[in-house]
Design goal:
The complex is a heterodimer of chains A (118) and B (434).
Chain A lengths: L1 E2 L3 H13 L7 E2 L2 H10 L7 E3 L8 H11 L5 E5 L5 H6 L4 E4 L4 H11 L5
Parallel strand pairs in A: 1-2, 1-3, 3-4, 4-5
Chain B lengths: L8 E8 L5 E12 L5 E10 L1 H30 L3 E6 L4 E4 L1 H6 L4 H4 L4 H4 L2 H17 L3 E10 L2 E13 L5 E10 L1 H52 L6 H33 L5 E4 H15 L4 E8 L5 E4 L2 H15 L5 E13 L2 E10 L6 H4 L18 H13 L2 E8 L2 E13 L3
Parallel strand pairs in B: 10-12
Antiparallel strand pairs in B: 1-2, 2-3, 4-5, 4-8, 6-7, 7-8, 9-11, 12-13, 13-15, 14-15
Helix pairs in contact in B: 6-7, 7-11, 8-9, 9-11
Classes of the chains: A alpha/beta (118), B alpha+beta (434).
Chain lengths: 118, 434
């Protein structure tokens, strides 16, 4: 699942993740939409790629709410805002990717988090 | 003692007593004459006036001393660069220095006996009197009271200290006040405060721009970097031509966005640093220019922008920023749209609001819409607070600032009322020049 308000980044994630063999089951454009979408999933996503600075509800708040629903949710932060790295990790993010990062780096990080071979 | 008495001869002479002490004797000599005018006797009397003379001397010295002290006190009091006054327990001035007298265009003598209520506005006089009473009742000084002081030459500020005025029996008979004019210090403090406030605002603004700029630039770089990496993988794979096209478009869009971002930063600093002079501008001409700019900038996107208006011409008080206003609203509508075909309709009409005539422009798009929770916070000036969630980007911040210069208004509604996901309607009002 991808949570990102930048439409162009969403388009890139779509191409990148699909070509790396991942299935995107949901794309939310802000934190609130993400929480609602997560609640609506019958089969929960294996991993969430979460932006931080988004309208209505930010990534940290959304992460906290999602972890309250399921504390085992795996979550990677991908944000251009380095100032929230510590807060994101303390709020439950498994790792924090600061933009701009390499595609390969993100894919490897997802695989590691899911226990797959890079 | 019949007959004419000659005038008395009078003199004082010192005499030494048997014990060797000097006494002052007051001698009165009178000549006694018979009826023919012949002197037949003299009458002399002596009075010891030593104590009286000593008392008179002491009194003279005391008076001289008093005069000197009084003179010295006047010199001291009048020479002090501040207001000095004594007041009785009934709020009347007993004595003031020249500074007080000059400040009130009166003589010291004219001020003596006057109450504060005779000189100052009631509220101000009451404040002074309340302080006096506090000192009189408590018997304790009240020091460094900073208070306004209205004079013929305008408001000044003084720092006043009041102490109990005590007589020789220890009874409080009034207060002694001493005030220093601190107007210049106050002005300097005010200037410092203003300067600090300006610095704080400028610092916050710089931080805000830096924050948005860094965040947005990093996002742009992420898009370009990721797209380039994917392009290098796909460039020789024919079945990936759709992805290659899309990634190329994304890179081009990022260049447009980056250019716009830098342009908007420059415009925002321009607005904050210079005064704007406005003149009547034909608005439809500018709107068409903005539409052309957007279509050229996104030549690889399918964008349809239509003007839906019965009015073909209208004037508003504006300047070169009017083009930026329209460009940013249109740019925003394109940026937040994921449809293969971007449709924007600009509806223009006339509107009356609060007795003023406006030209109303509605920008209806088929984009992702603005969630209800974001609608109200979208145009708040958040440059002075830290951004926690994303609100208005620099583009809409610029739009908002331009509209405040033009005395216009902006708000956003759903294109289809009640469904924020079906696109938005950005509405602006600009005062019409009739």
């Amino acid at each position: 699942m991808i949570v990102e308000d930048e439409l162009s980044i969403l388009r890139i994630y779509k191409i990148l993740l699909s070509s790396s063999g991942f299935e995107i089951i949901g794309m939310a454009k802000n934190g609130e939409e993400a929480v609602n979408m997560y609640k609506s999933f019958l089969k929960k996503p294996d991993i969430i790629i979460m932006d931080h600075r988004m309208p209505v509800k930010d990534g940290i708040e959304a992460t906290r709410e999602i972890l309250q629903i399921d504390k085992n949710t795996k979550n990677i932060f991908a944000s251009a805002d380095i100032t929230v790295e510590k807060l994101a990790v303390s709020s439950g993010a498994l790792s924090f990717k600061i933009k701009p990062f390499d595609n390969e780096c993100l894919i490897n990080n997802i695989k590691e988090t899911l226990g797959m071979k890079p | 003692m019949a007959g004419k008495i000659e005038p008395v001869e009078y003199f004082e002479i010192p005499k030494i007593t048997k014990k060797g002490k000097e006494r002052i004797i007051d001698w009165h000599n009178t000549i006694l004459k018979d009826e023919q005018g012949n002197i037949y006797a003299t009458l002399s009397s002596g009075l010891d006036i030593t104590e009286r003379k000593q008392a008179e001397q002491k009194l003279k010295e005391s008076e001289k001393l008093y005069k000197k002290i009084s003179y010295d006190l006047d010199i001291i009091l009048d020479g002090v660069p501040g207001l000095i006054f004594y007041k009785d327990t009934e709020n009347n001035f007993i004595r003031v220095n020249k500074y007080v007298a000059d400040a009130h265009n009166m003589t010291k003598e004219e001020l003596a006996g006057k109450s504060c209520f005779d000189i100052y506005p009631h509220d101000q006089a009451q404040t002074y009197w309340d302080d006096d009473l506090e000192v009189i009742k408590s018997g304790k000084p009240k020091l460094f009271i900073e208070e306004p002081w209205d004079t013929d030459k305008g408001r000044r500020w003084v720092s006043t200290s009041k102490i109990p005025f005590v007589d020789e029996k220890g009874e409080i008979i009034g207060i002694i006040g001493f005030s220093i004019d601190i107007t210049e210090r106050k002005k300097a403090e005010e200037k410092l405060k203003e300067s600090e406030e300006k610095y704080r605002v400028a610092y916050n603004r710089a931080e805000f721009y830096k924050d948005i700029f860094a965040h947005d630039i990093n996002n742009l770089l992420q898009n370009i970097k990721s797209s380039m990496e994917l392009l290098s993988t796909y460039k020789n794979i024919p079945e990936k031509s759709d992805e290659v096209n899309e990634l190329t478009n994304i890179i081009e869009e990022q260049v447009v966005r980056g250019t716009k971002l830098v342009w908007n930063i420059r415009k925002l600093s321009q607005i904050e640093e210079t005064e704007s002079s406005l003149e009547p501008v034909e608005i439809f001409q500018v709107l068409k220019e903005a539409i052309n700019f957007i279509q050229k900038s996104y030549h690889n996107k399918d964008i349809e922008i239509q003007i839906d208006s019965q009015i073909k011409q209208g004037f508003v008080q504006a300047n070169g920023l009017l083009l930026d206003l329209f460009e940013n609203i249109l740019f925003n509508a394109v940026k937040h749209n994921e449809n293969p075909k971007i449709e924007i309709s600009v509806k223009a009409s006339k509107a009356d609001k609060d007795g003023k005539k406006y030209l109303k422009f509605e920008f209806l798009d088929n984009g992702i819409g603005v969630p209800d929770a974001l609608k109200e916070q979208l145009f708040k000036d958040i440059s002075s607070i830290k951004r926690k969630t994303k609100g208005m980007g620099l583009g809409l911040l610029l739009v908002s600032k331009i509209l405040s210069i033009y005395e216009g208004q902006i708000w956003v509604e759903d294109k289809i009322k009640g469904d924020s996901s079906k696109g938005s309607n950005f509405i602006i009002l600009l005062p019409e020049v009739l």
